[in-house]
Design a protein that fits this description.
The complex is a heterodimer of chains A (173) and B (706). Chain A is α+β, with helices and mostly antiparallel strands and 173 residues long. Chain A is 43% helix and 14% strand. With 706 residues, chain B is of the alpha+beta class. In chain B, a hairpin with a 2-residue loop joins strand 7 and strand 8 (155-157). Classes of the chains: A alpha+beta (173), B alpha+beta (706). Chains A and B meet through helix 1, helix 2, helix 3, helix 4 and helix 5 of A and helix 5, helix 7 and helix 16 of B.
């Protein structure tokens, strides 16, 4: 057994588990954070995708010892109220059917948009090709990633606008 | 408004609708879907089995009696009830219904693309009855005639500007008689039905909050996996669990009827413990079963006469007289379901009770299986329906409920039994592999005049005089007008467990029929769309979707260089579907560019859901057509996970153009399975157009592409 301390959705978490226990099962069965899903156990389907230090990672094959001192973000950590731009886009397009793979799809999409604010279809396909959806929501996911990119851009413009505005105010004052 | 009498078909349906005052002082309306009155056994449950509950604070709570596996049942059923009830969409709450006869038990569940079809009329009647009672209560309070009052947006308004909310009227309405005459809304008055509505389950499914069976945590619960014999029907001879018990977190190792269970503090410990088990299996009589051996049995079966499924005219004679008969054998393999959420169930068995938490397509069967496995009486068993992470036919019955109950009993605590992906693929109940031998004859003008087929596969349901109609569905009952037709079926009896798979018999037979039809077209020098039009004189709805699809897809027009189209039709679950696939083949690789999908599914409830289900059905069928094959060797399934039983990926996803026919038909058709049958033949027919070679075996293989 090993004591592992890491940051989980912004809070410090310490668990006492075997060092080789996969992060997925620590999240789900030790911490009861069940939004991250088990799909294959072999990093083949993407249902268990979380962020480790911002990188999309398959938690089913990531040993807990690896996350010691690192930052882990799960679907529950995106926002408390579905207000993250990617969640907003998923709501707007109404993506899910059974919904089981969507945590992994969303986490992969969030990471994609962090690195590439305006991906084209090809880039979306490449980023998400290892996230399997058996319900066949791919067309909606692609649409939602574009929508999320637009939401993020407009948020960025809004932020820039208000920054310029406050700067102007400062200058005129 | 359309008047409907509740006393139709000689039944006084008032006895099947029941109202009462709710605990909170509101109105509860219950009724029976299957004609059974509210049963005494249901009364043993603490609450009255209502479909609708209106609370004094205006919230309306609906019981959703169909499980949600992504097909949109929750939203569609809520729309139907809310439409007739006239309540504010924002005031609606919903929950999954418990198991009860009024909700359809024992076949309470979602299957056969029947969720909306079977609920449409009764839910409308319940909504209308409730609305009328609320109006009646208001009218009495105001001393006016009910027909001078109007209902909508969760309020009743009177002739003199009076207005009361449904919540304020609920208690009074609960004391009224159920009306004998119902006024159902006319189609042109629909405010919700037919409108694209956002799914009610989306917010929970994008935040990680939706609870699937696998997510259930109850006090004292342990996690379990089960080692089952890799050969179907095999049993445990002996086992050594000394190493397994050393694995940190393993609580117990228990032999149960289907194998050896490892119970642990978490799933990972359970899986690690199972790896450390040493089991001596008695593999039994199926240890030599192989795909080649099974195919040989099927070949033998279709060489001798089978049970007759259709006999029109004299097909044998027409083919014998033909100078150029067309003959071909077609084959579709065993398929697993691979729902993204692998099978699982939480069971908590106590001395006098058994409680289950599970995502089952037919919770009624989960209940029955648990009664059998626990030895308890039906009223001691409770099933709590959870979201299902994909069904596709796999979650009807199966072993998982009984296994979980047995393990909980043996462990003396609640357990969450999980199938790993390997368990799921190797211990599934499969779509049966099917072999068919077909022949056809054309007249002097090249039009088909005779068609025969002999199918051999394991049966989906009990045989009647040697025949399983489902095993020939989509082939023997194809909608084409051909005067001489003869179809036979020979049942293959094997211990390979089989089950429904999205669209069931039609999933393979539509491939056989539609691909062979293109062989007939080519032999007769006909265009595939032209041939189908010629043969669809008796099926106007199928002809219509074909014509709309052909126009939409630009059939016969100019395509990008190297692109080819294939067409296929399906008439299933009271719906009609045409698909046109556009493909190209480059350096031996198949590219699927576009699918045009036209559906006539009668009355549409939520067009957004129809779009989703058409796309989803196509992706499911496309995965199977291009990648799906379960094979057996030495009695063992050879595939184990997504690396060798793959699914369609986003970069392989074609653009799917869905067109919904604005149908005059008042009844809704099914949508959950409707789009799956036609995709495989549309694809192989496009390949046939490109290569000139028919694809007679699925999945499509590289040799088909040159």
């Amino acid at each position: 057994m090993a004591q592992i301390t890491f940051s989980l959705n912004g809070f410090t978490e310490t668990v006492d588990v075997p060092a080789e226990m996969p992060l997925l099962w620590v999240l789900r069965d030790v911490l009861n954070l069940t939004g991250t899903k088990f799909g294959c156990g072999m990093a083949l389907c993407g249902a268990c995708t979380v962020h480790i230090d911002g990188q999309p990672t398959r938690s089913c094959l990531t040993q807990i010892s690896y996350v010691s001192g690192r930052e882990v973000t799960t679907i529950e950590g995106l926002s408390p109220d579905n207000s993250h731009p990617v969640q907003q886009a998923w709501l707007d397009i109404d993506v899910p059917q059974c919904g089981y793979c969507q945590s992994g799809q969303i986490m992969t999409a969030v990471a994609l948009l962090e690195n590439n604010p305006d991906p084209d279809d090809e880039e979306i396909n490449t980023a998400l090709r290892n996230n399997i959806c058996r319900c066949g929501t791919y067309q909606q996911i692609r649409e939602a990633v574009h929508r999320a990119a637009a939401i993020k851009t407009s948020l960025a413009y809004n932020a820039m606008d208000s920054e310029i505005e406050s700067k102007n105010r400062e200058e005129s004052a | 408004m359309k008047k409907t009498s509740l006393t139709n078909v000689g039944l006084d349906r008032r006895q099947f609708i029941k109202t009462s005052l709710s605990v909170s002082g509101g109105l509860m309306v219950g009724f029976s879907l299957n004609g059974a009155a509210q049963q005494d056994e249901d009364a043993s449950q603490s609450r009255f089995n209502a479909f609708i509950e209106i609370a004094p604070d205006d919230t309306v709570t609906l019981q959703i009696h169909k499980p949600e596996n992504g097909q949109g049942a929750v939203t569609a059923l809520t729309m139907i009830l809310a439409e007739e009830l006239g309540c504010d969409w924002n005031n609606i709450r919903w929950e999954f219904a418990p198991i009860a006869r009024v909700y359809g038990f024992p076949l309470q569940g979602t299957f056969g693309s029947l969720g909306v079809r079977s609920s449409w009329q009764p839910l409308r009647e319940a909504g209308a009855a409730t609305r009328q009672m609320l109006v009646q209560a208001a009218a009495e309070r105001w001393g006016v005639a009910p027909d001078r009052c109007a209902a909508g947006n969760s309020r009743v308004t009177g002739p003199n500007g009076e207005s009361l909310s449904y919540g304020a009227l609920a208690a009074a309405a609960a004391l009224l008689e159920v009306p004998t005459e119902l006024s159902l809304k006319s189609r042109e008055d629909f405010a919700l039905v037919g409108k694209a509505m956002k799914r009610l389950d989306t917010p929970a499914k994008i935040s990680g909050q939706a609870q699937y069976g696998i997510d259930v945590r109850v006090p004292g619960m342990a996690y379990a996996v089960l080692a089952r014999c890799p050969v179907f029907g095999g049993t445990v001879r002996a086992f050594d669990d000394s190493q397994a018990r050393q694995v940190p977190g393993v609580i117990d190792v228990l032999e149960v009827s289907r194998g050896v269970a490892v119970v642990a503090e978490n799933n990972w410990a359970a899986m690690e413990g199972r790896k450390a088990l040493v089991i001596d299996w008695d593999e039994g009589p199926n240890a030599t079963l192989s795909s080649a051996g099974i195919l040989a049995m099927q070949q033998e079966l279709i060489s001798t006469p089978g049970a007759v499924a259709r006999d029109d005219g004299n097909a044998a004679e027409a083919i014998a007289n033909s100078s150029t008969p067309i003959t071909a054998d077609y084959y579709a393999p065993y398929l697993a379901h691979t729902t993204m959420e692998p099978p699982n169930t939480v069971a908590d068995v106590r001395e006098n009770s058994c409680e289950l938490w599970t995502g089952s397509q037919i919770p009624g069967i989960a209940h029955l299986n648990s009664v059998a496995a626990s030895g308890l009486s039906p009223d001691q068993v409770k099933v709590n329906t959870q979201f299902i992470g994909g069904g596709f036919g796999s979650r009807g019955g199966g072993n998982v409920y009984g296994e979980a109950v047995e393990i909980s009993l043996a462990a003396g605590r609640p357990v969450n039994l999980l199938y790993t992906r390997e368990d799921d693929i190797q211990q599934d109940r499969y779509r049966p592999a099917s072999l068919v031998r077909m022949a056809a004859a054309l007249d002097a003008d090249g039009w088909p005049i005779a068609w025969t087929g002999h199918v051999s596969c394991q049966h989906f349901q009990a045989l009647q005089n040697g025949l399983d109609r489902e095993a020939v569905a989509g082939l023997a009952n194809a909608q084409y007008t051909i005067p001489n037709r003869y179809f036979e079926y020979s049942a293959l009896e094997l211990d390979v467990p089989t089950n429904f798979w999205r669209s069931v018999g039609a999933s393979q037979n539509t491939y056989f029929a539609e691909a062979f039809l293109d062989e007939m077209a080519r032999a007769g020098g006909k265009d595939p769309v032209e041939l189908r039009r010629h043969l669809l004189t008796d099926s106007p709805r199928l002809l219509n979707v074909l014509n709309v699809a052909a126009e939409r897809a630009g059939w016969g027009g100019e395509l990008p260089e190297g692109h080819y189209q294939g067409v296929a039709l399906a008439s299933v679950f009271a719906s009609f579907n045409a698909q046109i696939a556009e493909i190209s083949i480059t350096q031996g690789r198949l590219y699927v560019h576009r699918i045009t999908c036209v559906v006539d599914c009668g009355q549409v409830i939520n067009p957004a859901t129809v779009h989703q289900q058409m796309q989803g059905g196509i992706v499911y069928g496309l995965t199977a057509a291009l990648k799906g094959e379960i094979t057996l060797e030495n009695g063992r399934v050879q595939q184990s996970n997504f690396h060798n039983y793959d699914a369609l990926r986003m970069d392989e996803m074609p653009f799917i153009d869905v067109v919904i026919i604005d149908s005059e038909v008042e009844a809704p058709g099914g949508i959950g399975e409707t789009a799956t049958p036609a995709i495989a033949p549309a694809i192989v027919n496009a390949i046939y157009a490109a290569t000139g070679k028919p694809v007679r075996k699925l999945p499509v293989s590289p040799v088909d592409l040159v």
